[in-house]
């Protein structure tokens, strides 16, 4: 946006003075960072509203409980973001979460000694599911939406095989660690959330992190630039599956039991969080940071609807309307910078 | 699909092309193997034969009619899905399941087991669906929300509204007239719902192939810029596609109501992604501009036959519950899609 105005500046200087430097810089920062600013504003609003409506919102106990509910959704949103950035989408992520959690909970069976093995098995399951998705999408070249719908049926079925009913018993060490408060106001889930973000920053610096954006931005161009497109796609789905398994572990640690039927809901939540966080669904634009904040905002809104005294039967409706409004707002802001002419009729 | 494969097959073309100036066409056998309608039709027949061999009752006339009746619900709901997908712009309507449930719930409340309020109930139900469609369209076309996200968000809104409207306990039941239409014999031993489906199918195929609306739909889906420059009102075309999608979902929901007689809040949930799968199996590409309703009809029948086959083989009964059926369903879906639903290679 600033480039044209700079090139025109010499000609325009004769008639009118160019806009002040500060203003220009501000404008460019605004247009580049619009989604981030929007989601940050949303975060501030929701946190402020929560603080007003929930008297004890900033108490140590309440912080622990809040972050414990943020973490699973934030983690699965991060997983979805990795996949979407590379130009895919994974409708089976929710079932991967439940499958990984089911495998873990069945293996650990309430025993602390089995915890490491169970966690490793859960994560391996997640990564394996992601690998299957990646191979189906990149290897067989199926359209991601239908392909991952099909695999979600497979993974969901497998989760039901492993754990037919909600139940199982997580190891006490896992649930207790999850509820611990490290320092004054900082519970373990918050630390994990920061660790997740740090891991993303590391990946972002790595070659494959750059490849994700390249492939999502334009697979053809990436291919011609010698980016291993198929490998990057498989990697994105595998990494997504692994992170989804982490979400499964977080869910397990939060609730203390497995539930094989949560699948769809989690997938939908992850996509909503990602869009609110400013990631473009077509890939190539966005980041995990936004998705994490988006997930926190979503969870906060859900809590707000509860604490604002909305009648029980109306809660879902109000929540849904707020989500739609937030998504539409995010959509407007994200489309601002790169709005196509009206005749293009939206993205192709 | 055939267009993209044509250049690869050019060397295999027959010695004497029918018309010298005509573009090279691959041999008939190859073309048939690549035609989604033919492949999925053959597969549906094959599955049906397997089912009939396994359980001879399956081949009886009554069973075939029941099978087609069940397929008709998916088929009718998938009409709108097909239209939206053809209209392009990453078009997809995931809210059809929730919309179908909404329609059934509104209709049953106003019918309340009698024929008196039939017309009013149908109009009110369709009106409610129309509202959902308009909101979807406004979100997608005005606020530029990606269709996947918008319709996903609408699921939350519609489900929330259902909860608000019914208080969690849906009331009423289907009018006898609707019941007769769906389950009773009407003409030639075939239930009225099948005649209705046939009529709708003919109407939609005619609409897509012979009317200017159909041609505009394909034009917009294929290349919105060209369509716009050729004088097509792209926004209006897409808008009507979303509204029609919700309307047909509503019709499908009412048929489901007639079949199930009573409503429950998860009545239409399964149709959300199955309608997409039916369209894609039938050769409608998610990129838009390619496909047709005939394929979707076959896709709906194929999915229903597959589901019934797995049910009568008692896969899914007994100690394992639903799980193995889900797994096999997903695997078969991937195999079917692999047959022709693949995207083009990056390397050309």
Structure commentary:
The complex is a heterodimer of chains A (348) and B (348). Chain A has 348 residues and is an all-alpha fold. Chain A has one domain (40-335): ABC transporter involved in vitamin B12 uptake, BtuC (Orthogonal Bundle). Chain A contains 15 helices and no strands. Chain A has helices at 2-15, 21-32, 34-53, 60-85, 93-108, 115-139, 144-162, 172-179, 188-205, 207-217, 219-224, 229-255, 263-276, 288-307, 312-337. The longest helix of chain A is centred in the C-terminal third of the chain and has 27 residues, at 229-255. Chain A starts with a helix and ends in an 11-residue tail after the last helix. The model of chain A is unreliable at 1-15 and 337-348 (pLDDT under 50). Chain B is mostly helical. Chain B has helices at 2-9, 28-34, 36-54, 61-86, 96-111, 118-141, 147-166, 176-183, 192-210, 212-222, 224-229, 234-260, 271-281, 293-312, 323-340; strands spanning 185-187, 190-191. In chain B, helix 3 packs parallel to helix 14 (293-312). Mean pLDDT of chain B is 83; it is low at 1-18. The interface between A and B is large, with 56 and 67 residues. Chain A: It is found in: Cell membrane. Chain A: One of its GO terms (molecular function) is transmembrane transporter activity. Chain A: It is a multi-pass membrane protein.
How would you briefly describe this protein structure?
By secondary structure, chain A is an all-alpha fold. Chain A is built from 15 helices and no strands. Chain A has one domain: ABC transporter involved in vitamin B12 uptake, BtuC (Orthogonal Bundle), CATH 1.10.3470.
Contiguous uncertain segments of 5+ residues of chain B: 1-18
Query: Given this structure, which CATH class of chain B is correct?
Result: Mainly Alpha
Radius of gyration of chain A: 22 Å
Sheet of most strands of chain A: none
* Estimated structural class of chain A: mainly alpha
- Architecture per CATH nomenclature, i.e. the level-2 architecture of chain B: Orthogonal Bundle
3D shape of chain A: globular
Average residue-wise pLDDT of chain A? 82
Transmembrane segments (chain A): 34-53, 59-79, 91-108, 114-138, 145-163, 183-203, 234-253, 288-311, 317-335
Subcellular location (chain A): Cell membrane
Protein name (chain A): ABC transporter permease
Pfam families (chain A): BPD_transp_2
């Amino acid at each position: 946006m600033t480039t044209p105005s700079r090139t025109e500046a010499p000609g325009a200087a004769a008639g009118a003075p160019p806009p002040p430097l500060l203003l220009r810089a501000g404008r460019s920062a605004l247009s580049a960072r619009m989604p981030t600013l929007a989601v940050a504003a949303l975060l501030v609003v929701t946190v402020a509203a929560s603080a007003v409506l929930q008297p004890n919102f900033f108490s140590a106990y309440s912080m622990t409980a809040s972050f414990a509910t943020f973490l699973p959704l934030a983690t699965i949103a991060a997983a979805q973001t990795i996949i979407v950035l590379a130009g895919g989408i994974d409708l089976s992520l929710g079932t991967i979460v439940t499958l990984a959690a089911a495998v873990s909970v069945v293996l650990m069976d309430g025993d602390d000694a089995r915890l490491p093995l169970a966690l490793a098995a859960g994560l391996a399951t997640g990564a394996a599911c992601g690998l299957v998705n990646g191979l189906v999408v990149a290897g067989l070249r199926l359209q991601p939406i239908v392909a991952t719908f099909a695999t979600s049926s497979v993974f969901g079925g497998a989760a039901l095989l492993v754990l037919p009913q909600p139940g199982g018993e997580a190891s006490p060490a896992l649930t207790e660690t999850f509820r611990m408060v490290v320092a004054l106001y900082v519970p373990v889930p918050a630390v994990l959330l920061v660790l997740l973000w740090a891991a993303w920053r590391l990946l972002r610096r790595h070659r494959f992190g750059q490849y994700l954006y390249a492939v999502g931005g334009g697979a053809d161009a990436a291919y011609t630039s010698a980016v291993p497109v198929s490998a990057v796609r498989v990697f994105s789905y595998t990494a997504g599956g692994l992170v989804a398994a982490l979400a499964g572990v977080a869910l397990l640690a939060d609730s203390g039991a497995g539930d094989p039927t949560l699948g769809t809901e989690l997938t939908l939540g992850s996509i909503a969080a990602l869009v609110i966080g400013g990631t473009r669904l077509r890939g190539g634009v966005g980041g995990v940071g936004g998705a994490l904040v988006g997930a926190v905002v979503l969870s906060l809104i859900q809590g707000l609807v509860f604490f604002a005294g909305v009648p029980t039967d109306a809660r879902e409706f109000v929540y849904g309307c707020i989500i739609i409004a937030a998504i539409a707002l995010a959509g407007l802001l994200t489309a601002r910078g790169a709005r196509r002419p009206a005749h293009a009729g939206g993205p192709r | 699909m055939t267009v993209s494969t044509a250049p690869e097959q050019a060397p295999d073309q027959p010695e004497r092309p029918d018309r010298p100036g005509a573009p090279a066409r691959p041999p008939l056998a190859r073309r048939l193997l690549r035609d989604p309608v033919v492949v999925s039709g053959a597969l549906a027949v094959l599955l049906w034969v397997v089912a009939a061999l396994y359980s001879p009752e399956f081949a009886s006339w009554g069973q075939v009619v029941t099978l087609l009746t069940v397929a008709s619900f998916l088929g009718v709901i998938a009409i709108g899905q097909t239209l939206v997908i053809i209209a392009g712009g990453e078009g997809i309507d995931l809210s059809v399941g929730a919309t179908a449930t909404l329609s059934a719930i509104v209709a049953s409340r106003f019918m309340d087991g009698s024929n008196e309020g039939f017309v009013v109930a149908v109009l009110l139900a369709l009106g409610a669906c129309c509202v959902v469609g308009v909101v979807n369209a406004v979100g997608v076309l005005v606020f530029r929300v990606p269709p996947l996200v918008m319709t996903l968000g609408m699921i939350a809104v519609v489900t929330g509204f259902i909860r608000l409207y019914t208080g969690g306990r849906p009331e009423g039941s289907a009018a006898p007239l609707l019941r007769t239409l769906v389950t009773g014999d009407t003409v030639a031993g075939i239930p009225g719902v099948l005649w209705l489906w046939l009529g709708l199918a003919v109407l939609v195929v005619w609409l897509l192939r012979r009317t200017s609306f159909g041609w505009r739909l394909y034009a917009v889906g294929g290349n919105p810029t060209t369509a716009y420059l050729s004088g097509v009102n792209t926004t209006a075309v897409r808008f009507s596609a979303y509204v029609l999608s919700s309307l047909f979902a509503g019709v499908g929901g009412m048929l489901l109501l007639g079949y199930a007689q009573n409503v429950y809040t998860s009545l239409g949930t399964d149709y959300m992604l199955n309608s997409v799968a039916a369209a894609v199996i039938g050769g409608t590409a998610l990129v838009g501009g390619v496909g047709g309703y005939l394929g979707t009809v076959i896709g709906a029948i194929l999915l229903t036959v597959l589901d019934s086959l797995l049910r009568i083989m008692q896969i899914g009964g007994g100690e394992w519950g639903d799980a193995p059926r889900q797994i096999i369903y997903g695997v078969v879906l991937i195999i079917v899609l692999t047959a022709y639903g693949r995207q083009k290679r990056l390397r050309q």
